[in-house]
Amino acid sequence: MSKFLIASAVALISGNAVAACPAVVGADAGGTYPHIFEKAEFESLHGCQMNFNENPVIKALNSRIAGNVELLSLAKRLPEEPLVIAPYQSIGLYGGVLDGISKATESGTSDLLSVRHVNLVRFSDDLATVVPNVAKSWKWNNDFTVLKVNLRKGHKWSDGSPFTAEDIAFWYNNMLMDSNIIEKPKDRFLSAGKAIKVDVLDETTVQFTMNKPAPGFLDNFAQDYAQPFQPKHLLAQFHPELNKDADKKAQELGFDNGYAVINFYYGQSDWKDIPTPLLKDKAASERLVKAGLTAIMPSLESHLVVEESLEGRRLVANPYFFQVDTAGNQLPYINEIKEVFIGDEDIQTAKLIAGEVDYKAQAVNLPQTPVLLENKGQGKYEIALRPTIAQTTFAFNLTDKDEEKRAVFNNINFRRAMSVAMNRDQINEVAYFGLGKPMQYTGFDADTTPFVTDELQKSWTQFDPKMAAKLLDKAGVIDKDNDGVRDLPSGKKLELNIQYATQGTPTELVEIIANNWTDVGVKTTIKEVTSDEYRNSQTANDLSVLSWVMGRPLSNIASNTETLVPPYGGFFDLRTGMLWSQFLDTNGAEGVAPPATVAQMQKLAARFVTLKAGTPESNELGTEIAQRVVDDLFIIGTVKAVSPVYRSRSLGNFAVPKTSSYEFYRMYPYLATQWFLGNEDMANN
Predict the structure, then answer these.
(1) Cβ-Cβ contacts under 8 Å for 356 (sequence gap 6 or more)
(2) Does position 3 have pLDDT exceeding 60, yes or no?
(3) What is the 3-state secondary structure (H, E, C) of 311-363?
(4) CB atoms near residue 640 (< 10 Å)
C-alpha cells in the first residue's frame, strides 16, 4: 500500500476555494509527531481545509446511551481543534463489534479499557516521547515547578456538555483532595507529599504549581489509568461544598446525601472498570435518567458502557469523541465493544482458538502459546510474542498476621534462601520455553534502564539448594524432628500456601517454585484463585506468600515512586508490608513500625521524582535505589520473558506493539481508535 492515500479528488483552487485535504496514512505522513496532527498544522502543511464526516449509525448508537440528549450536529460535537490521526495502514471502515474477554468486572479488563482510554497526553509508539491527546499542548517553567496545560477549544463530554479546565481543577481540588470521595490521594498526584496548587487560568488553560521540581509529573498521564478530569457539570450539583442544596437534591433522588450520588457515579476509584451504576443499582440509575441526568458518568473516552451484568458489558462509540482521521472521519471506526467475563483460563483459550475474540493480550500466558500457534489458521488470528516490562515476582508478607511467621519473613537470610532455592533456568525452560531471562527484581525495567547492571540483575538468582539450606538454618528455620520438613523456631511446622491468579502468575511457574521450596524443607502447596479473590485477600493482609507481575520503566518511576515503598502500589499491584503502611498513615497510632530501610527508601524516592530522568544525577540516585531494592529483597524476581499478543485477522490498522505490558497501559499508546473491522484482505493491507 502507498504511504499516501487520496480519499477524494483534489478540488481546483479558484477564488476562495480551498483544496480538499489528502487522506494520508502511515508513520511518515508528516507532522510534528508520528501519526498525529493538530488540525491547523495538518491544514497548513497540505494547504487544505478539512471537511468532517460522521458514522452513519451514530444517532442510533447515541440513543442507547441512557440519559444522553438528542444528538447535536457533527460540527457542534467535534472540538474546533480536533486531534487528527493518520491511520497506520488505511482509512478505516465504520461498523462492527470488537469482541473481547476479561476475567470479571474489575479483573483482567486492562485490554479493553486501554482500547477506549484517553488521558491528557500519551506516549508515542516509541514509548519515550510524550505527545498530545486530550491536551493540545503544555509548557513547563525552567525549574519544573509550574506546568501550564492547554486544552482543545470546543471539546465536549459524551453528553454534549462543554469540557473545560474547570473539570480538571474540580477533579483535583474537589474530588482527589476530598476524603469523603477518595480516602487518601495517591502520592503520584502530590508534590513533596503535599497537595499541588491547581488553578484555572481560562476555559482551556489549567496550571499546576508544584511544591518541589517534578519534571516527570506530566508523564503520569501518558501511562496512567487515572484520568485527571471529571464532569463538574454533573457532579458539582451533588457536592456539599459547592452546592448548599446538594444533600436535599440527592435525597429527592433516593440517595442518603450528595456524596452518595458522587460515589455512585465515580465509584471511589480512578479505575474506570469498577461496576457502573448500571450494574450497581439499575433502578437507581433509571431514577437519575428520569430526573434528566445520565445513567453513567459522562466520559471523554472513545466508547461508553451502555449495558453491564455479571456476565459482561457492552459499549458503544462516543458521539462526541475528539479525534478524526485525515479524511475527516470522526473516530472511532468501531461501533461497539462486547466484553464477556470468563475467569477460567481453559475456556478463555478455547474461545481464542475458535476465533471468537478480536484482541487479547492481558492474561494470555506464554504456556498457552503452542496451542494458539497451532490453531491460528482455522481461527483466523495472529499471535505475536513481545517483550515484557514486568516479570512475575514473589514476596513474603512482612506484616503477616502470624507473628512468628512475620519474624521469619523479616529475616534477610530467609528471603535470600528462598530466592536461591528457585530454579529459574527450569522456570525459563518450562514456563517460558527458554525465551526469558532469569533475573532479580530491581524495581526498574532492567532492559531499558541504563543503571541496572548485570550484577544487580543476577543478585541472589543462582540455583543453590545447599546455600538455601545454610541460610534457612541461619534464619532459625530448622527441621527439629527430622521429618524432612523445616519448623518455625517454636517447633511449629512452617507450611506455606501460595494462592495465585493466572492473570499475574503462570501455573507452571508456581508449580516449580512450590516444588523447589518443598525440596529445601519448606513445605509449600498452591491454590489457584480468581484475580479479585487474590487482591481482596492481599489487601486484607490474609496471605503469607504474594505473587504478581512487578517492574516498571524508568519514565514511570521517575514520576511515580509508589512501587518503591511498601506496600508497593495500590490494589492492583503486589502488596506487602500493609501494616507498615498503616503505621505510617496513622503516625504510629495503628499498624506496625517498619524497619529503618523503609524510611531511607522513602527519602530516596522523594528526591528521585525531583530529578529529570536520564540525567547523571538521576542515574546515580537510581543505582542507589536499585541496590537497596536488591539488598532488602522484599520482592523476589523470577524470569523476565515475552508475552503473547493475540489479534483477529479481521482487525485492521493494528500495529504489533513494541512491548506487551501493563506498565504502558497495554495498548493505550497504540492508537486503538483507528482500528477497524473488515475482511482479512482489507484489514491486512
Answers:
(1) 99
(2) no
(3) CEEEEEECCCCCEEECCCEECCCCCEEEEEECCCHHHHHHHHHCCCCCEECCC
(4) 24
Find the Cα–Cα–Cα–Cα dihedral 439, 443, 445, 449, rounded to 10°: -110
Is 142 buried (19+), middle (13-18) or exposed (0-12) by CB count in 10 A? exposed
The Cα 339–Cα 303 span in angstroms is: 12
Which residues are paired to 132 by β-bridges? 121
Strands 97-102 and 437-438: unpaired
Chain segment 580-637, per-residue pLDDT in tens: 999 988 999 999 999 999 999 999 999 999 999 999 999 999 999 999 999 999 999 9
**Is the distance from CB of 223 to CB of 127 less than 8 angstroms?**
no
Q: What backbone phi and psi angles, to 5 degrees, belong to 338? A: -115, 120
Please answer whether residues 196 and 190 qualify as being in contact, where contact means their C-beta atoms are separated by less than 8 angstroms.
yes
C-alpha to C-alpha distance for 654 and 329, rounded to whole angstroms: 18
User: Average of pLDDT values for 132-154?
Assistant: 98
d(CA 5, CA 11): 15
- Do residues 660 and 128 lie in contact, with contact meaning Cβ atoms separated by under 8 Å? no
Cα angle 380-381-387, degrees, rounded to a multiple of 5: 165
- What is the per-residue pLDDT across 389-413, written as a single tens digit (0 to 9) for each? 999 999 999 999 999 999 999 999 9
* Contacts (Cβ under 8 Å, ≥6 apart) of 60: none
Q: Is 250 left (phi over 0), alpha (psi -120 to 50) or beta?
A: alpha
Q: 297 near 266, Cβ under 8 Å?
A: yes
- pLDDT for the residue numbered 363: 86
* Grid cell listed for 203: 476555559
Mind listing the pLDDT tens digit for each residue in 524-534?
A: 999 999 888 99
What CA–CA distance (Å, rounded) separates 282 from 276? 9
* Three-state DSSP string of 633-682: CCCEECEECEEEEEEECCEECCCCCCCCCCCCCCCHHHCHHHCEECCHHH
